[in-house]
Automatic annotation (TrEMBL), chain A:
Keywords: Glycoprotein, Glycosidase, Hydrolase, Signal. One of its GO terms (biological process) is carbohydrate metabolic process. PANTHER family: BETA-HEXOSAMINIDASE (PTHR22600), BETA-N-ACETYLHEXOSAMINIDASE (PTHR22600:SF42). This is Beta-hexosaminidase. Belongs to the glycosyl hydrolase 20 family. The active site is at E389 (proton donor). SUPFAM superfamilies: (Trans)glycosidases, beta-N-acetylhexosaminidase-like domain. It catalyses: Hydrolysis of terminal non-reducing N-acetyl-D-hexosamine residues in N-acetyl-beta-D-hexosaminides. It comes from Drosophila hydei. Residues 224-572 form the Glycoside hydrolase family 20 catalytic domain. It comes from the Eukaryota.
TrEMBL record, chain B:
It catalyses: Hydrolysis of terminal non-reducing N-acetyl-D-hexosamine residues in N-acetyl-beta-D-hexosaminides. This is Beta-hexosaminidase. GO terms for molecular function: beta-N-acetylglucosaminidase activity. The keyword Transferase does not apply. It comes from Drosophila hydei (Fruit fly).
């Protein structure tokens, strides 16, 4: 009876084994699965090719090393293997592999204090969970080499801003019994990035477990300290889960700033604990909101992934819904032209709404909003105050404003309106300083705030309106515009969001066109004048405006294109996208493994057949 | 502090032991209260800076939040337009109206595609639950009966999904955040509470205004279940109320019409998130029939593989939009995912991997599923061009070269896009394999009066390397005629009434007989070939690249060369395209237009983006082909009424799990007409 049941259980298994054995006999009829049976080689032009495709009559030396799969080959084919974005310093990768079990990796953390140690422990945890996602088959190996990872960090601070040192050095070496990974970084953020690179040295094995490049030496630091992605949650709401996914993908791409355009004219989903009316009047519905705690947790979640969240409270334009309760509360019109039609007379995009710069109550409410925002971020964190697309005819057509202006001695010239507008920003910066002084007395210097480029940032007049010590300008002009150069000459610090390359929403509305990953990649940032000691181009951001995107298409619209910008901002390569494409395809597949749904960029055939789709 | 010391002093001096315990309790209570007061004072202090005095209302508002957080807005109908109003329930019993309930009862009938004849719905609506639905079949035909039952089951399943969605989504969010310790969502923590409260009191078991909702399906005239272009797809839907019993009577000549009626009924029912029940009209009359017979969608599963689930999901959405042909471009030069019974070598050599394949069972499953939705599955093996990988094993089997130029470089000399591959027109085995494939397809999908032979983008230079023929185009024509002859054999020696080929240089000659061949025109809508093909007597299916190619607009996927067909076609582009109007076709030529088809080539799409690349744009096509609404008043602007309906339809797709792309900011959906 027992025998019978054993037979029952094992018979199919036996058959299966027999079938596999039969299949592996090298006869003509079973060379179908060439991807699994044949060996792969890295040719002289850094292509991973199956052995039989590499013709000997090329007159080239046959490369010696055989890899078990295309993925294995990719790990060290080409100077940078599968690392995305590519390291800026030394990078050498061996062709040998260690076969290891991710469950058995051991970590040793050397950090100066409790908080940094704790941070690195979390980093280790995230690292392991990312490794497990690379397993093509079962992760567990019965016997494998031990992998010991040691991370050493000197700096005891967790401050993450534009002067945080994100550099790291990593050495992998393997002895007969064990592999050592030695990571050295100044800050925990540098160490975290090293772990990210380490995960790029790993791939799934065709058998169980994972493969690790057996020896490597990498020295790396980013070209720019601000490597950002803008996410707009006002035009269409994005559930938290999708923002967290975005943060995961950003971490995998070594991006370090999420510019959260959390509110706009369309809706006000963010809870302001001091002014609950904002959300109550501004949110699309009760489920389409972010509570204060949600936002706090999101900031924590991001920081563990080396990402700052910079919140943007746009004003005076792009502010409408959420502000409509003023008259009922006896505070007057805080936003004017609100949802006015025909919208073309009052704003650049429906619905209309622009803050009333002559209403003191509005400033009071805004200050409370700023206070909430200050509470959400780290002490060193700054804010984005918007300041784009002010539509002067809106103010000019609102009697309440024109009357008050006349009463205060303004004429109704354009200069007057610009003055009014710049005073709006100055007053808010003042409020921001007050708040920070009280809330974070330990932060000595007043923090610069970010504004979009606009009429106000016209190089001719900007110096009178916006002092360069206090305002960082995020430009969103096209690549051929001279604005960047002019502002740099005047000493302004810039964030670059090239409109005709890094606006990810383009191509789906009006006469805009879509920028594929190559165009995103090839978008070079303006050069620093280098006259001053201080860096002036802080970096850049790709922008995901959400008029035509919600959770259903968000990921595909952002990824993998934002990854192309990530390499531009991290490595600032001199080479074009063509040389990066195979690493890029591998990067895209890594995103998929991590649960992101990036857009497809080429037929799958082209990924499997390197160099055939030029 | 002074007060405390004094209390203790008093206590020591004068009180009996029995009272000590009580007093100790009192004292600690007092201390607690004092502490709390002191603490609060501190908090207020940090908040009270200059501006606070300007806003005394805040304290007042905190104590009595009038608006329940979950209900920010109510809607009222104003001039056939729903207007959003901030919802204050000032003690009075003013019921909040949810957006969807307003939208469904404000203005013209809100279904997609719009019915072609006069239709009416009452303003009186009734609440009910999915459990109230009952089916009454009124047909003498046994097989029709069976399939109607299946179609009705789909309706019930979808309505269940719609009714449940409200509870499902916040829960999912809560689950997601629970698994992520560093990100706990407070709104997710609140929602299950609210959901639980409501579902226990007004759960799905609570009946609304109805005891039952009878769906009566009458199909008498025809027992036809096979697809052909002459299927009568018209239907009539009448709803009447009899006490607490609502009767929806759908009358059609065929199963196909009745199924469309069910799709209409599904859209006449919506979930009222205020009542947490389904709602429908107390009375309605819809008379409906399509303007075009062939309303298709093409999906390419060769450039990227798509799972059977993804295909079925697509077909279910097609059914909702009343599209009726799923054109499955199952193979191409890149890969051959179909596992043929007779020639498994094709997939063995041509599939991306073992898992990225379709077995016969898979195809049968898709086909059976599609039948329920009134969608015919048309399989295409593109030939002679667009056939390379998978066809390379001929010599080893002694069958000779089945395909030529496979993966040849430089590709731009020998094909339209890499990798190259073009069937060998002078190898009898090639035709034999095609014949077998056709045979298998016909067996899997059932009898048909229309079949697709591919036939596009032949590169004559590829063949010129092998053959000395002076007339290579003649070779191409012979290939098509030969494969058509094989199709006839495969079809039991009966030639299908219609054989479709893509438009090409070949279709500009008259080599293919116009009595049988249908040309799927994919060139520009202004090209001369449009007129020529009609003049030459061909029937036509429009798939103009400049309007109905859904893959366009994502730039070139190769390092070299321009993007093939940018820009992106917005849903408005798809919707506004009316080639038969623009070409001013007379009655006779209009008859030659069988319909249209949207095409999704998948060089730059995989399963992750399938839904949002297709929807809601395919829906725009569906209305164009079903109702072909007039837009004489302005050729360039889509009327606000269309925005309103497609927005509701898009939300319906999302409710059913289709990840349709956003049409515009949600503000514009909540405020119809304000963003135009």
């Amino acid at each position: 009876m027992i025998l019978k049941s054993i037979m029952h259980c094992y018979l199919p298994l036996l058959l299966c084994v027999a079938a596999v054995a039969a299949g592996s006999v090298p006869d003509d009829s079973s060379e179908n699965s060439r991807t699994t049976t044949s060996k792969w080689l890295c040719d002289s032009t850094d292509l991973c090719l199956p052995e039989e495709d590499l013709l000997p009559e090329n007159g080239q030396m046959q490369p010696k090393h055989r890899f078990e799969s295309q993925l294995d080959c990719r790990l060290s084919c080409g100077k940078y293997g599968a690392i995305w974005p590519m390291p800026t310093g030394e990078c050498s990768l061996s062709n040998d592999r260690v076969h290891f079990d991710p469950w058995k990796v051991r970590f040793n953390v050397v950090a100066p204090n409790e908080v940094t140690t704790q941070f690195l422990r979390e980093t280790n945890r995230l690292f392991v969970s990312n490794l497990l996602k690379e397993c093509t088959r079962n992760c567990t190996l019965v016997s494998s080499k031990e992998v010991l990872v040691k991370a050493t960090v000197n700096d005891s601070s967790l401050v993450l801003n534009w002067s945080t040192d994100e550099s790291y050095m990593m050495v992998v070496r393997t002895t007969d019994t064990v592999s050592f990974v030695d990571i050295k970084a100044t800050t925990v953020y540098g160490a975290r990035l090293a772990f990210e690179t380490l995960s790029n040295l790993v791939t799934g094995s065709v058998s169980n477990g994972l493969l690790l490049v057996s020896s490597a030496r990498i020295i790396d630091r980013p070209a720019y300290p601000h490597r950002g992605l803008l996410l707009d949650t006002s035009r269409n709401f994005l559930p938290l889960r999708y923002i967290r996914n975005t943060l995961d993908a950003m971490a995998a791409s070594k991006l370090n700033v999420l510019h959260w355009h959390v509110v706009d004219t369309h809706s006000f989903p963010l809870e302001i604990t001091r002014v609950p009316e904002m959300q109550r009047y501004g949110a699309y519905s009760n489920t389409q909101t972010y509570s204060h705690t949600d936002a706090l947790n999101l900031v924590k979640y991001a920081r563990l992934r080396g990402i700052r969240i910079i919140l943007e409270i746009d004003g005076p334009s792009h502010a409408g819904n959420g502000w409509q309760w003023g008259p009922a509360a006896g505070l007057g019109n805080m936003s004017v032209c609100l949802n006015k039609t025909p919208w073309r007379s009052y704003c650049v995009q429906p619905p209309c709404g622009q803050l009333n710069p002559l209403n003191d109550h509005m400033f009071a409410v805004l200050k409370e909003i700023l206070e909430d925002v200050a509470e959400l971020g780290a002490p060193e964190e700054t804010i984005h105050m918007g300041g784009d697309e002010v539509y002067i005819p809106c103010w000019n057509r609102t009697e309440e404003i024109t009357n008050e202006m006349k009463a205060r001695g303004y004429d109704l010239s354009e200069e007057s309106f610009l003055r009014l507008w710049s005073q709006f920003h100055q007053r808010n910066v003042q409020a921001w300083d007050d708040i920070n002084l009280r809330m974070y007395p330990s932060v000595r210097e007043s923090k610069p705030v970010i504004l979009w480029s606009s009429r106000l940032t016209d190089p001719e007049t900007i110096e009178q309106l916006l002092p360069k010590e206090r305002f960082i300008i995020q430009t969103w002009v096209s690549a051929d515009n001279s604005l960047n150069r002019n502002l740099l000459q005047r000493g302004y610090r810039l964030l670059i969001s090239t409109k005709d390359a890094w606006y990810l929403d383009h191509g789906f509305w009006g006469s805009t066109s879509y920028y594929n990953w190559r165009k995103v990649y090839d978008n070079a940032l303006p050069l620093d004048p280098r006259k001053r000691q201080e860096r002036q181009v802080l970096g850049g951001e790709v922008c995901m405006w959400s008029e035509y995107v919600d959770q259903n298409s968000l990921e595909a619209r952002i990824w993998p294109r934002a990854g192309a910008a990530a390499e531009r901002l991290w490595s600032n390569p001199k080479s074009s996208a063509n040389l990066a494409q195979r690493r890029f395809y591998r990067y895209r597949e890594r995103l998929i493994a991590r649960g992101i749904h990036p857009d497809a960029v080429v037929p799958h055939w082209c990924v499997l057949h390197e160099g055939q789709c030029l | 502090m002074l007060l405390l010391r004094r209390l203790r002093y008093l206590f020591k001096m004068s009180l009996a032991v029995s009272l000590r315990r009580a007093l100790l309790l009192l004292l600690s209570g007092a201390i607690f209260i004092l502490t709390v007061l002191y603490w609060n004072q501190g908090v207020i202090k940090t908040q009270s800076y200059n501006e606070a005095q300007l806003r005394p209302h805040i304290q007042k508002d905190h104590s009595s939040i009038l608006i329940p957080l979950e209900k920010s807005w109510t809607y009222k109908c104003d001039n056939d337009r729903c207007v959003r109003v901030n919802y204050h329930r000032n003690g009075a019993n003013v019921k909040r109206v949810s957006f969807i309930s307003c939208s469904m009862t404000c203005g013209d009938i809100n279904i997609w595609p719009h019915p072609t004849s006069k239709s009416q719905v009452s303003s009186h609506t009734l609440r009910f639950s999915v459990e109230d639905l009952q089916l009454r079949l009124d047909t003498p035909h046994h097989d029709v009966r069976r399939r109607l039952k299946l179609a009705f089951d789909v309706l019930v399943r979808q309505l269940r999904q719609i009714q449940r969605l409200e509870y499902a989504s916040p829960h999912a969010e809560a689950m997601a955040s629970a698994s992520e310790p560093s990100a706990k969502s407070t709104d997710a923590a609140e929602s299950p509470l609210a959901g639980g409260l409501f579902s226990s009191t007004f759960g799905s078991h609570r009946s609304g205004d109805l005891d039952s909702l009878h769906v009566k399906l009458s199909v008498h005239e025809s027992d036809e279940l096979n697809f052909n272009l002459d299927n009568d797809e018209s239907y009539e839907l009448v709803t009447s109320l009899d006490h607490r019993r609502l009767i929806v009577h759908i009358r059609a000549k065929t199963f196909f019409g009745a199924r469309h009626g069910l799709s209409t009924l599904q859209q006449l029912i919506w979930y009222d998130d205020e009542e947490r029940l389904l709602r429908t009209y107390a009375s309605s009359v819809v008379n409906d029939a399509p303007k075009f017979r062939y309303r298709g969608l093409m999906l390419d599963t060769s450039r990227h593989f798509f799972s059977v689930d993804a295909i079925k999901r697509t077909i279910s959405a097609m059914g909702l939009a009343k599209l009726n042909r799923f054109h499955w471009h199952i193979t191409d030069a890149q890969s051959f995912p179909y596992i043929s019974r007779h020639y498994p070598e094709l997939a063995e050599h041509g599939a991306y991997s073992d898992s990225e394949t379709y077995s016969e069972q898979d195809v049968r499953e898709v086909n059976e599923y599609a039948k329920i939705f009134g969608v015919q599955v048309l399989l295409e093996i593109d030939a002679p061009a667009h056939a390379g990988n998978g066809w390379d094993w001929g010599p080893k089997r002694g069958l000779g070269e089945l395909s030529l130029c496979i993966n040849q470089q430089p590709w731009s000399f020998y094909c339209g896009e890499p990798p190259c591959g073009q069937l060998n027109p002078k190898n009898n085995h090639t035709y034999l394999i095609l014949q077998r494939l056709y045979e298998e397809f016909l067996q899997l999908t059932g009898p048909t009066d229309i079949f697709h032979l591919g036939g596009d983008e032949v590169n004559l230079d590829c063949w010129a390397q092998y053959f000395n023929d002076t007339d290579l185009r003649g070779l191409w024509c012979d290939f098509m005629l030969q494969s058509n002859a094989r199709l006839k054999v495969a079809n039991g020696n009966v030639a299908p009434k219609h054989v479709v080929v893509w438009s090409s240089a070949l279709t500009n000659t008259k080599c293919l007989p116009n009595s049988q061949f249908v040309v799927q025109v994919w060139g520009g809508s202004t090209w001369q070939e449009n007129y020529d093909l009609l003049d030459n007597g061909y029937n036509i299916i429009f798939s103009h690249v400049d309007a109905w190619y859904l893959d366009c607009g994502f730039g070139s996927w190769r390092a070299t060369g321009e993007a093939a067909c940018s820009p992106y076609r917005t849903w408005q582009n798809v919707y506004k395209h009316r080639p038969w109007e623009r070409m001013r076709l007379d009655k006779k030529r209009r008859k030659q237009v069988l319909g249209g088809e949207a095409c999704l080539w998948t060089e730059q799409v995989d399963e992750g983006q399938l839904d949002n690349r297709l929807w809601p744009r395919v829906a725009a096509l569906a209305e164009r082909l079903w109702s072909d609404p007039n837009d004489d008043h302005d050729f360039d602007i889509v009327p606000p009424e269309v925005f309103r309906r497609i927005s509701v339809f898009r939300n319906r797709l999302v409710e059913l799990g289709i990840k349709a792309e956003a049409l515009f900011p949600k503000y514009c959906a909540q405020n119809p007409g304000e963003c135009i």
